[in-house]
Design brief:
The chain is α+β, with helices and mostly antiparallel strands and about 240 residues long. It has helices at about 15-30, 50-60, 80-85, 105-115, 125-130, 180-190, 190-200, 200-210, 215-225, 230-240; strands at about 90, 95-100, 120, 140-145, 155-160, 170, 175-180. The protein starts with 14 loop residues before the first helix and ends with a helix.
């Protein structure tokens, strides 16, 4: 998981930056709180675990996490200054979010719910970021049969037109998302080039360790969907690591 970068001590030369952070924090705290959400549905057998439930409960209900834009910031240069301080994480030249909001599962879920297209389920690399944290993804990955040409906060919407029964989906707050086991399958199905760039093998293993499912659970999903692109390679990967879990 990622952690928010510690802010530097306030000195005489740093008071201007601290003032920007205070103004931004005050603005964020004044936002109307999200209404209570029903507890996320239980993950299916292949991905449910005491560790997952504990992680969810520790995160509490979704915080008031959302994308900040120019109207939320005290000045035109504040985004760059606050990002340099580690107070916010930039998405593009005009948008960011508070760093503290990506420290928890529900914080990341609330952030992604404010970015992803409505009524769509996030999957693949985007789902892995919600479950694990780390560097914000370069694309917004969703399950859909539609096409999206517009960028979202500088990110392309990448569509996966794959079968996704209810047993492969769950919710984190208001965000519809693939379960950790299904997410691991989607990551294993990526191209060789992208897998190497993302350290996909390590990502899949982190999902297994964190949410306590096994390669056999992913192999069962792949058995039901033998015609997915790159499915043979994904099966070989899960067969190979089955001796480690």
């Amino acid at each position: 998981m990622t952690s928010a970068t510690a802010l530097p001590a306030v000195t005489t030369s740093g008071r201007a930056a601290a003032s920007l952070l205070h103004a931004l924090s005050s603005r964020a705290l004044s936002l109307q709180a999200l209404p209570p959400q029903a507890p996320a549905q239980s993950l299916q057998a292949q991905s449910s675990s005491a560790a997952a439930a504990a992680s969810m409960s520790r995160g509490g209900m979704p915080p008031n996490a959302r994308v900040l834009n120019g109207s939320d910031l005290p000045g035109p240069l504040s985004l760059h200054r606050l990002a340099h301080m580690g107070a916010v994480r930039r998405l593009d030249d005009s948008h960011a979010y508070l760093s503290e909001h990506d420290d928890t599962l529900y914080g990341r879920g609330a952030l992604m719910a404010s970015m992803a297209p409505r009524r769509m389920s996030v999957c693949a690399v985007t789902a892995a970021w919600v479950w694990l944290g780390g560097q914000f993804p370069k694309t917004i990955d969703i399950l859909s049969t539609s096409h999206f040409r517009s960028l979202i906060f500088g990110r392309k919407i990448r569509v996966f037109n794959r079968n996704a029964p209810a047993s492969h989906l769950t919710t984190v707050g208001s965000l519809r998302i693939t379960t950790p086991a299904r997410t691991a399958c989607d990551i294993a199905l990526l191209s060789d080039e992208e897998s190497a760039d993302l350290y996909a093998n390590e990502m899949v293993c982190s999902l297994m360790e964190t949410y306590e499912f096994r390669p056999a659970d992913c192999l069962a999903i792949l058995d039901e969907n033998r015609f997915w692109q790159n499915s043979p390679r994904a099966r070989r990967f899960f067969d190979l690591i089955s001796y480690c879990f």
